[in-house]
Amino acid sequence: DRHKADFRSSFAQMSAPAPAPVSRGPTVIYLIRHGSTAFNEGSRFRGKSTVPLSDLGRRQAQSVADLLAAKPIAHVACSPLPRAVETANIIAAPHLAKQSPPVPAPADMYHPAAPYVTIDDGYTSANYGPWEGHTTEEIAISDPQGYKMFREHIDQAQFDGETLDGLSQRFRASLLRLVEQFPGQQVAVITHQICTRAVLCDLMGAPKSFYWQLGQEPGCVNVIEYHDGKFSVKIMNWTPDMWDKVGVVSKAW
After folding, report:
1. What are phi and psi of 137, to 5 degrees?
2. How far is the C-alpha of 56 from the C-alpha of 86, rounded, in Å?
3. Phi, psi of 198 (to 5 degrees)
4. Beta sheet of 186-191, edge-to-edge order
């Protein structure tokens, strides 16, 4: 009888359904372009330059911080360039203030408020080399063939040897590491327009030749979700004054 009871117990354990896996919601990524700089406002190439945010850029970053202050953002990651780090610190400030004990903003806004804010080189901008600091009009005159390639065939252009495909691959690799670290949570990534445009093309299955068709204003927010191994784009190019910009040609890029 004892052996029969043991057998029935073992059989019941074997035939019982396996517990359902814990279901997590999507990982939400706020993909944010840094705020404006003097180079943006003067139509100058930025790339790896260390130009800081302008007063306008800081107001744009604060608008994003206000928008996301009530969101449960678990982490903020950013490009190592000062304009991205400062934007990240401004966006992180309301969340740091809610920690126990509250964490003050860093004294140097060009250093990340670690460990809540971290730098990832995968989110950095392209290298425009000798074009950096020069206006689009100046480059159109000094390097007409290069500029024509940039404007008309950017999908074939190279930036210090890096193509848009290469850029989006290293960017996606960083995104995947982030979503693996914070599954089912909300995170923010502060980066540059060449990165947001390239990776948005990838995530939507669009060729890189669509690059210029995607609006990405300084300080804009894109919302991406990652679930069951797939990315989906939910919102693109949100800014608090987005409706004011409809039908208006902006020189800031």
Report:
1. -65, -40
2. 13
3. -65, -45
4. 117-119, 73-78, 186-191, 27-33, 221-227, 230-238
Helix axes 82-97, 55-68, angle to 10 degrees: 40
- DSSP 8-class letter at 123: G
Q: Look up the pTM and report it.
A: 0.88
Residue with token string 């004892």: 2
Residue showing tokens 């990405």: 216
Any idea how long the chain is? 253
Quote the CA–CA distance of 223 and 27 in Å, as a whole number.
Answer: 10
Task: Return the half-sphere exposure (C-beta side, CA atoms, 13 A cut-off) of residue 47.
Answer: 17
More confident site: 241 or 128: 128
| Alpha-carbon dihedral angle through residues 237, 243, 248, 250, given to the nearest 10 degrees | -40
Task: Determine the Cα–Cα distance for residues 40 and 108; give it in Å rounded to an integer.
Answer: 23
- Distance between CA atoms of residues 134 and 124, nearest Å: 20
Please give the structure tokens belonging to residue 61. 């970053």
Scanning 73-189, the segments in alpha helix (DSSP H) are 82-97, 136-142, 144-152, 164-181
Question: Residue with structure tokens 């509250």?
Answer: 102
Q: What is the DSSP string of 177-189?
A: HHHHHSTTSEEEE
- Helix, strand or coil, per DSSP, at residue 134: coil
CB 53 within 8 A of CB 83: yes
115-132 pLDDT, tens digit each: 999 999 999 999 999 999
Three-class DSSP category at 72:
coil
